[in-house]
Design a protein that fits this description.
CATH class of the largest domain: Alpha Beta
CATH superfamily of the largest domain: ATP-grasp fold, B domain
Bound molecules: adenosine monophosphate
Strand content: 25-35%
Structural class: alpha+beta
Length: 352
């Protein structure tokens, strides 16, 4: 067990790190952020900040010397430089990072565990794309295998003509069949160091332009009917990775049951509602898990919870949002609003 007063290292400097650090502070820990970008909204609420390139081994070793445990808030942290952490525990295990960083490896891993992703094929060049289209058909989505997020690095292919018109980006890709889903949802779980697994209500998620727009718990009847199967697969994933911390697994609710989309080996945007909407938030339970503390209750704290993201450069009327007592406003302190950028979120509780 890591006692309060010790320092938790966080790899990545975004809003997920910020909310992890705020939960850690509540439990008496200090946090140290490592991130390559000088403007870090996580570092603003932390005791220490190392701003260095991921492959700066000396900086990584100095950072590790200050930390009792290290975790990550960003799944594209390169794995090789993490060797410089030495004997300091890194949780969740970096094998989760390696698996989630490559969409192809991730889907094969999940299939091996009995999960059902959309039909997929690796694509390395034009001939590979043609072969994938011949086998899988259209509509589909071509995605970069690595480093895509929030709909970036994705091309929709409605018909063969779209594929012909596309200039391939010269990076390893994956082609996936488009899933005709009734809804999207995510399984949010936390696995403790002792293997204890807790689930929050699985939220129903709505994406707009590839970016999460809203999450609602409890989910509607279609999702409800598929949660048990999805949770079972998610538990197998967590057990197989000897996972410690919060894991998010995204699914499409299809006609024949849940279709695996992707997993995030970290706290997740679709779990932000747990800050006010659950007895223990995803951020607190992640900190508890990596510090070897008992996990808190994941029960809903309201009849219904809805979270919506504040995205892009729209100017919202903050006092107006706050004037409704059911709303909780979270702003991440990002200076520059850009289209598609997550600036904050609003959680709305319905108590009765
Ligand atoms: P991803 O980054 O892969 O999670 O994709 C972002 C969003 O794009 C998903 O949440 C879906 O709304 C949509 N999407 C991605 N892949 C598929 C697919 N194979 N079929 C249908 N919709 C998809």
């Amino acid at each position: 067990m890591i006692p309060p007063g010790e320092t938790i290292g966080i790899l990545g400097g975004g809003q997920l790190g910020r909310m992890l650090a705020m939960a850690a502070a509540q439990l008496g820990y200090r946090c140290h952020v490592f991130a390559p970008e000088p403007n870090s909204v996580a570092a603003e609420v932390c005791a220490a900040f190392t701003c260095a390139a991921w492959d700066d081994a000396a900086a990584m070793a100095r950072f590790a010397a200050d930390c009792a445990v290290v975790t990550y808030e960003f799944e594209n942290v390169p794995v090789a430089p993490l060797a410089a952490l030495g004997a300091v525990p890194l949780l969740p295990h970096p094998r989760a990072l390696e698996t989630a960083q490559d969409r192809l490896a991730e889907k094969r891993f999940v299939e091996r565990l009995g999960g059902r992703p959309a039909a997929f094929a690796p694509v390395d060049d034009r001939a590979g794309l043609n072969a994938a289209l011949a086998r899988i058909g259209t509509p589909g989505i071509l995605k970069t295998r690595r480093e895509g997020y929030d709909g970036k690095g994705q091309w929709r292919i409605a018909a063969l003509a779209d594929a012909a018109a596309l200039t391939l980006p010269g990076r390893p890709l994956i082609y996936e069949r488009f899933v005709e889903f009734g809804a999207e949802f995510s399984v949010l779980l936390c696995r403790g160091a002792d293997g204890d697994v807790r689930f929050w209500d699985a939220p129903e998620n709505v994406h707009e332009g590839g970016i999460l727009a809203r999450s609602t718990a409890p989910a509607g009847p279609l999702v409800q009917s598929q949660i048990a199967v999805a949770r079972e697969l998610s538990t197998r994933i967590a057990d197989e990775l000897d996972y410690v911390g919060v894991l998010a697994v995204e699914f499409f609710a299809g006609e024949a049951g849940p279709v695996f989309n992707e997993m995030a080996p970290r706290v997740h945007n679709s779990g932000h509602w747990t800050i006010e909407g659950a007895v223990t938030s995803q951020f607190e339970n992640h900190i508890r898990a990596i510090c070897g503390l008992p996990l808190g209750s994941t029960a809903l704290a309201a009849k219904r919870v809805e979270m919506r993201n504040v995205i892009g450069d729209t100017v919202e009327d903050w006092p107006q949002i706050l004037s409704d007592p059911a709303n909780h406003l979270h702003l991440y302190g990002k200076a520059a609003a850009r289209p598609g950028r997550k600036m904050g979120h609003v959680t709305r509780l319905t108590l009765a």
